[in-house]
Each structure stands twice: as C-alpha cells, then as structure tokens.
Amino acid sequence: MLTINELDELDKRILQQLQKDASLTNHELALRVHASAPTCLRRVKRLTDEGIISRQVALLDASKLGAGLTAIVEITLDHQATEKLVEFEQLVAQEGAVQQCYRVSQGPDFVLVIQVADMAAYHALAHRLFATHANVRNVRSFFSILRSKFETAIAL
C-alpha cells in the first residue's frame, strides 16, 4: 500500500489535477502534468489499485436540487459499547440524507452532516433516526446559514 512519502512529484501533480477535475481525459491530464499519456494512464491505474484514488464522483449543487438545508448534528449515545456504536453507524448509513458520519472523541459520540430539503424534512429524519432509537441520549443540531467554503481536495 502506497503512502504519501512514496508518491513522487508526478504522482502528486496527477492527484492535484484529478482533485480539481476528475473528468479530464487521459490526454488532457498528461498535458497538464507534463507527462506522456501512457505514463499518466499507468500512474492513475496504480494510484487507483493502491487505493489512493478511492473513487471519482460528480459534486452536485444541493440547493438547485431541493436539498438546501444542511444540518450538522452531534449525537451522544447512552451506551458506547463497540456493538452499539456499530449499530448506530449501520442505522445512519442506510439514510441517504446523511452525507457524512464521524465517530469522534471528547464530547459527543458522533457528528453527522445531513442534507435535506427543509426543516420539515429534518424533523421527519430526526424522528425516524434519533427519537425512535432507544440508545440515543442527546441530539444537538446546528443549521448552516452560509457555506463560505467547501473543498474536497486533500493538500499534498
């Protein structure tokens, strides 16, 4: 498995370009990173096979698709045994509106990022996921009023 220390400058240039625009053709990528097309193809395949590139996706504008409310939610469970944590993770993994789920330390057990249409949709989701779940002790929700930065790129 490759680590950051095993990536050379070409690997890093390739990853930086793909983080900006993964829809580049191999030829366009090669031009941007100053390498041959066959070299780029081999490198991207290696980076994918090694798991450095985990997947390529399209980022959608939630507000244009009717999902304009972002909630950041802290969840504290009554019981934190491993099986209870995994059970909660499996519950939220099935919910499409939950975009991210983090198990965290020092404070709540989980932090979720949720994208829904509006407050009514959030209340329905909160009832379905939290209020009816016997192990959820505390829910603390924050609602985004402005997203001033959103990046998916990892600094290399």
- Which CATH top level class of the largest domain fits? Alpha Beta
Strand order, largest beta sheet: 2-3-1-4
What is the succession of H and E elements? HHHEHEEHE
Q: How many E strands?
A: 4
Helix and strand composition category: alpha+beta
Mean pLDDT: 95
How widely separated are the two ends?
A: 17 Å
CATH superfamily heading of the largest domain: Lrp/AsnC effector binding domain/regulation of amino acid metabolism (RAM) domain
Strand content: 15-25%
Number of domains: 2
Counting DSSP H or I runs of 4 or more residues, the number of helices is 5
Portion of residues within helices: 25-40%
Short description:
InterPro entries: AsnC-type_HTH_dom, Dimeric_a/b-barrel, Tscrpt_reg_AsnC-like, Tscrpt_reg_AsnC/Lrp_C, WH-like_DNA-bd_sf, WH_DNA-bd_sf. The protein is an alpha+beta fold and 156 residues long. It has helices spanning 9-20, 26-33, 37-49, 82-93, 119-131; strands at residues 69-77, 98-103, 110-116, 136-143.
